[in-house]
Write a structure and sequence with these properties.
The chain has 8 helices and 8 strands. The protein is an alpha+beta fold and 263 residues long. Keywords: Plasmid.
């Protein structure tokens, strides 16, 4: 017999979330929920963990939470036929709440430098910034879901019930950042690499090892002198004086012969 999860948060979990006093406390608890150590979290179906499609994102999301970037929603990049037989496309995307100005600047700078779409939405007493949402999921070409968009008091009450009053005030009036891959499908999964580098979960790659770097790739053979019996232009082996693969090859070898000292 299948047992259905109870439709409310356990008393122990309610106490844990109520005991959080700082954003770092909140991030630690959110990371534990992502990792399956806590059954329920505020603003989500009680006694349910992350969706199966985000299982491979858990290390990235947990590291973000522990670094002060509390994630509230995410999805991987995907393009393919869904369970309904229709064509679904998703952009890799994540939404986070940030309350530290320095952390916010680092996040936005890293995402922007990597070419991701960034949307900022504040629920501040002075109004803050409210940017339009971005469609992140389509079904047969029709928009299904979006990240970003205007947020208000009602959204915060749904997102963070049961928190300590002072902490609720802090995160409810924090900055909500949506980072979205510009492309649909698996190509957008590079988002998680960039975020791992931001949190230190992954080392910064050398330019020649970074598939998304604009730096020219290092050619280990670039500075090698041609070996005897090789074309000085293309490196092809030369077993006799001709024919050459092109006039340019013949001219290149002729130039080399002229540079050699007489014996």
């Amino acid at each position: 017999m299948t047992t259905m999860p109870l439709p409310w948060m356990s008393r122990a979990d309610r106490r844990r979330w109520k005991s959080a006093r700082s954003v770092l406390d909140l991030g630690t608890l959110m990371a534990l929920w992502l990792e399956g150590e806590i059954a329920s979290r505020p603003g989500y179906q009680p006694r349910f963990g992350p969706d199966e499609e985000t299982a491979h994102l858990v290390p990235t999301l947990a590291a973000l939470c522990r670094a002060g970037y509390v994630t509230t929603c995410s999805q991987p990049g995907f393009a393919g036929t869904g369970a309904d037989g229709l064509w679904w496309e998703q952009r890799a995307a994540v939404e986070l709440v940030v309350t530290d100005a320095e952390l916010l600047d680092r996040l936005v700078a890293a995402a922007s430098a990597a070419g991701f779409i960034v949307r900022i939405n504040d629920h501040r007493r002075d109004g803050g910034l409210q940017e339009d949402g971005v469609v992140v999921t389509t079904r047969d070409g029709e928009a299904v879901t979006a990240f970003g968009g205007r947020i208000g008091r009602a959204d915060m009450a749904i997102q963070w019930p049961g928190l300590d009053r002072a902490l609720y005030d802090q995160v409810a009036h924090g900055t909500y950042v949506s980072i979205i891959a510009p492309e649909y499908g698996l190509g957008g999964e590079r988002l998680w690499v960039v975020l791992d580098i931001l949190t230190g979960l992954r080392p910064v790659p050398a330019p020649e090892d970074d598939p998304w770097s604009d730096e020219p790739k290092w050619d280990p053979y670039e500075d090698l002198e041609p070996e005897p019996g090789e074309c000085a232009l293309c490196g092809a082996p030369i077993h006799h004086r001709g024919p050459y693969c092109s006039e340019a090859c013949e001219e290149a070898d002729a130039d080399r012969d002229q540079e050699q000292p007489a014996r």
